[in-house]
UniProtKB/TrEMBL annotation:
Keywords: Copper, Glycoprotein, Metal-binding, Oxidoreductase, Signal. The keyword Cell membrane does not apply. Residues 1-35 form the signal peptide. GO terms for cellular component: extracellular region; plasmodesma. This is L-ascorbate oxidase. Residues 44-157, 169-327, 446-500 form the Plastocyanin-like domain. It comes from Heracleum sosnowskyi.
């Protein structure tokens, strides 16, 4: 299998597969000495909202859902004064994809980088956005992301530096899944004995808007029967132009597939890093991932086209989210004259892996302000992480090498800074799972596991080789799909493999 030098901040393990990566920073952009300062004041609160035309309680910022889009330029300093107006719970916000160099306390992770902001309290996040790209933010405490605490964070390139592609205009689409059950009920169900699966989401939202119990796809003859109040906004375009579409997924469960009827998409950015440009009919996007695609509109379009986002990786009954690619001067309310496109089958992993294997880091030595570094030839340490389902005190838990994380009451960052050795478990975590003969294709025979708040201690300026090994769940013939996001770092994705990883070094 070939290796893919692929510097990105999150990547997905599909099916039962191995993922090889080095955790280092492969790409950087040289920034201008001129930088701006963005000062924001936010309040977080629960409020009544109708994301899919069914009224629910959502978590909003400054009275809006989703939260406001932050637009910045690479090198800008962002200051956000966040006040918690929730009555009975704390809150934190994670700035997904931001490296937080020099500001790790602003990462927004409860019990890791900070304590939760208590009801009525205020906390100031202050950090620099180092490079251009498509990012987002979300609640990182309990299930607050599922409650709607998220928004887009768009960072533009600083002049006179340029991006390795050009376009006329851009759109941002923030994708999410939505349940009618409130998140407190969901949390009780998922942590109970026995576990109660909350089921598939009722809707997929586009920028916080979707439709429940109303399929626009069934009415493509132009007769609108769905309420316009929660209908996703159309993308208004003109013929013969190039548009950048920024996609980011904040889903809690759903893997998604994005496509535009009868149009090609050129992928140019993945998770805040430029990639070698390639063309696709559709793309898979998993929770926590972001992409930029370029869309060249038709010169001779006579009407509108469907934009569709369907569920992948799960046999879901959630209907696709639909909106309109509206060719001006055609009215956006006029539906296309044909049915929406059909997404790849939910379990077509060959299609998924074909897309992933096309993603390669951009090697553009002549691009001003851009520097590409190839992966190191050797690693200093290798860690093999086996991802399984286990039981702890009769509760189903996801574990790594038979260990489930228990967050400490004192955040790791403060405990380490002030040498509070008793604040979290001090034992060393294993670099490999204990049973080398573990059969990844069957449910675990020994489902017992332990909880721990211990951490991996890694020195600075070393190369760590990490292998993510996916395995069967507790149920026969079932595995799961979920991306891995490394806070504060980019990394190279070196390759993928089928089945069980064989460590030649041991």
């Amino acid at each position: 299998m070939g290796f893919l030098p692929d510097p990105r901040s999150s990547r997905t393990s599909t099916g039962v597969a191995s993922l090889f990566l080095f955790c280092c920073l492969p790409i950087f952009l040289v920034q201008s000495s001129t930088a701006g300062v963005i000062d924001l004041k936010w309040t977080v609160e629960y409020m009544h909202w109708s994301p899919d035309c069914i009224e629910s309680v959502v978590m909003g910022i400054n009275g809006n859902f989703p939260g406001p889009t932050i637009t910045a330029t690479a090198g800008d300093l962002i200051n956000i004064e966040l006040t918690n107006h929730l009555h009975t719970e704390g809150v934190v916000i994670h700035w997904h994809g931001i490296t937080q160099k020099g500001t790790p306390w602003a990462d927004g992770t409860a019990s890791i980088s900070q304590c939760a902001i208590n009801a009525g309290e205020t906390f100031v996040y202050s950090f620099t956005v180092e490079k251009a790209g498509t990012f987002f933010y979300h609640g990182h405490y309990g299930m607050q992301r599922s409650a709607g605490l998220y928004g887009a964070l768009i960072v533009s390139q600083v002049e006179p530096l340029r991006e390795p592609f050009s376009y006329d205009e851009e759109f941002t689409l923030l994708l999410s899944d939505w349940w009618h059950q409130n998140v407190h009920r969901q949390e009780v169900d998922l942590s109970g004995v026995p576990i109660r699966f909350i089921g598939e989401p009722q809707a997929i939202l586009i920028n916080g808007r979707g439709q429940y119990a109303c399929s626009a796809a069934a009415h493509f003859d132009g007769k609108a029967v769905c309420s316009p109040k929660c209908k996703p906004e159309p993308l208004k375009v003109e013929p013969g132009k190039t548009y950048r579409i920024r996609l980011a997924s904040t889903t809690a469960l759903s893997s998604l597939n994005f496509m535009i009827q009868d149009h090609k998409l050129d992928v140019v950015e993945a998770d805040g890093n430029y990639v070698e440009r390639f063309s696709v009919d559709d793309l898979d996007i998993y929770s926590g991932e972001s992409y930029s695609v370029l869309l060249r509109t038709k010169e001779d379009a006579k009407g509108n086209y469907w934009i569709s986002i369907g569920v992948r990786g799960r046999d879901s009954d959630t209907p696709p989210a639909l909106t309109i690619l509206n060719y001006l001067p055609t009215e956006w309310e006029k539906h296309p004259n044909s049915a929406p496109p059909v997404h790849p089958k939910w379990n077509n992993y060959t299609h998924s892996k074909s897309f992933s294997n096309k993603i390669k880091a951009l090697n553009a030595p002549k691009l001003e302000g851009y520097s590409y570094k190839p992966p190191p030839e050797k690693q200093n340490r290798r860690i093999v992480l086996l991802n399984t389902q286990n039981t702890i005190k009769e509760r189903i838990k996801w574990t790594i090498n038979d260990i489930s994380l228990t967050l400490p009451s004192t955040p790791y960052l403060g405990a380490i800074k002030y040498s509070l050795d008793k604040a979290f478990d001090q034992q060393s975590l294993p670099d490999r799972y204990s049973n080398p003969d573990y059969d990844i294709m069957v449910p675990p025979l020994n489902t017992a596991a332990i909880s721990s708040s211990a951490v991996y201690n890694l020195p600075s300026d070393v190369t760590i080789d990490v292998i993510l090994q996916n395995a069967n769940m507790l149920k026969d013939d079932h595995s799961e799909i979920h991306p891995w996001h490394l806070h504060g770092h980019d990394f190279w994705v070196l390759g993928y493999g089928e089945g069980k990883f064989i460590d030649a070094e041991h």
